[in-house]
Amino acid sequence: MSDTNGDSDEQCSSAEAEHGYPIRESDLASEVVYTAIAELTGRSPMELAPLASVIDPDALDAIVASGTPAGSFHVSFEYSGHWVTVTTDEIVLEPL
Question: Residue 82: helix, strand or coil by DSSP?
Fold first, then answer.
């Protein structure tokens, strides 16, 4: 992964890198957040704190499912040691 200015000689370690997870039409954004965090941390989704402790999962799902054009919004929040950014088609996790 190159840095933001396009220099390919500077690499990020996987512990520091952003990780992107697509949201498909049939997905609930809140479930993708749980699955992505669990996958990235090696934990079961059942071991994670409730997402509702930091954001309303129903509202998050509704915003993403509303058909808002890609790139027209993003929601970011801290969850389980990561900065989570949700757009209409992707969830990006960045370690804190």
Answer: strand
The answer, as to whether pTM is greater than 0.90, is no
For residue 91, which of 2, 28, 1, 5 has the smallest C-alpha distance? 28
- Structure-block tokens of residue 1: 């992964």
H or E stretch at 86 = strand 82-86
If one counts every other C-beta atom within 10 angstroms of the C-beta of residue 15, the result is 6
pLDDT at 15: 52
Residue 50 Cα distances to 26, 28, 31, 34, angstroms: 22, 15, 11, 9
The series of mean pLDDT values per 10 residues for the chain, 96 residues long, is 37 63 92 95 92 96 82 89 93 95
Q: Which residues, including other chains, have CB under 8 Å from residue 78's CB and lie 6 or more apart?
A: 54, 84, 96
Report the distance separating Cα 96 and Cα 64, nearest Å: 24
